[in-house]
Amino acid sequence: MTWAIRVAVGLGLTAALVVLGIARPEHTAVDDAAAPAAPTSVVATVVQATTSVAPTTTRPPYEGWVDPLSSGEPWSSTVDGLLTFRGNPTRSYYGRGPVPANPVVQWSFPDDGSLCSFSSVGGESIQWCGTGWTGQPTVYEQDGERWVTFGSYDAAVHFLDAETGDRRLPDFPVGDIIKGTVTIDPDGFPLVYSGSRDNFFHIIATDRDAPVELWSLAADAVSPTMWNNDWDGSAMILDDYLFEGGENSQFHIVKLNRGYDADGLVTVDPQLVFNAPGWDTELTNAVGSNVSIENSVAISGNTVYFANSGGLVQGWDITGLDEGIDPERVFRFWTGDDVDASIVIDEEGMLYVGVEYERANSRSQEVGQIIKLDPSNVDDPLVWKRDERPYVDSGVWGTPALYKDILIVDTDEGRVLGLDRMTGEERWNMKLQGPTWQSPVVVDDVLVLGDCDGVLHGFDVADTTAQPIEIWSVTLGGCIESTPAVWDGWIYVGTRAGKFYALADDSIDTISG
Ligand SMILES: [Ca+2]
Ligand SMILES: [Ca+2]
Ligand SMILES: [Ca+2]
Ligand SMILES: [Ca+2]
After folding, report:
1. Pairwise pLDDT comparison (134 vs 53), residue with the higher score
2. Is residue 436 part of a domain?
3. pTM metric for this prediction
4. The domain containing residue 345 runs over which residues?
5. Which of 369, 438, 449, 484 falls 20 to 30 Å from 137 in CA-CA distance?
């Protein structure tokens, strides 16, 4: 049975956006042109860590950074919520049900106008609206109340009441658009971590009348850098360390030194304790200088994984980080082409990687666009591969989703695939209006996925051997490019038409129900 819920969209606004040519994403929405290089002289300092917080799990304590068995589980035992892009260190937690059975828009934001601003791409200024890649909202409890916090294309972070859409705090303006997903402090400090195209990675306090920036990391604070200065990746925070890749093509680790002052206000005293290029000479010889890191770092065991626009998947061992021992690269696999999707890691430590097809080189034709890697087999890690390259500038932008025994992947052309995790064999496929760049969300056996016609779909995927069954659809308008958040009967998502939406069943009564 299918419900088609049509939501009235301001036709004048939609028409205006179409005239401006921004109702659909451009392929430049993820990749940004190289910025002029600036000389830098800041050198990272190494400080000794003094404390380490043991993770709380229902299993015996794990002697390391991230228990691989935590794949698919919530991140924090301190803060209830969806706290970062794809929810946890292995980028494999999609939210908490129930999923609405018949979702209806309960509120939209802002009340008037749209979330738009102008930003430059390659010297040309264009208007950007709403939220885009990756743009997943965070949903969480702070001081006993539920917040929805996200960055958007109006160049601000928004802090909203999850039930009403009213502002909990004034907007926090940054210097340029925000494409990525903010991270909420997993240890309960009232802190929000956000990148921006404004060349800074920001740490924002949310425990006073207005949000306050406590610190920022400039893209040129390290050297050498390559390509650009934006920050799209969603940070990961473990044991007071922040891990983040930048479009400066470097991998950064910051010791936060979080605390509170005499008035009880949150403080940080960040120290950049490590940074390293995410490229090597072999890579730049093969692909040139576009080696920016646009995905969100993923961590399993004692290894931080990420990939860059040069297609280099890499793992960095952080075993001795809290003893002052520098991380070392322990895994290297070249996919041949741009990897902007985040790496997803299963409970066995296997990596699932979505790859774009824009260089069209022989390596990307050999390796394919959806791959499973076994990083314990450093010399021959490729477990399986799948080709998804119908044309140049296609492949995968969305971060794949692990669900039961399958991997769910959407492609630029709008194909959605259910693949056997063990073999890569196709269980099912379906076609939506592309480009589909959001990351599939699966909660309570329902796949929530939007398309670029602005329709948000719910599919029953409980039987992983069967074709998904559409159980509802909601027309929001614009292109749904960013990843939705599902939490306690609500779905939160923005579109490129300029608004941010909260959907729930009309019968929803209390936020905590
Ligand atoms: Ca970017
Ligand atoms: Ca690209
Ligand atoms: Ca920039
Ligand atoms: Ca890229």
Report:
1. 134
2. yes
3. 0.90
4. 13-504
5. 369
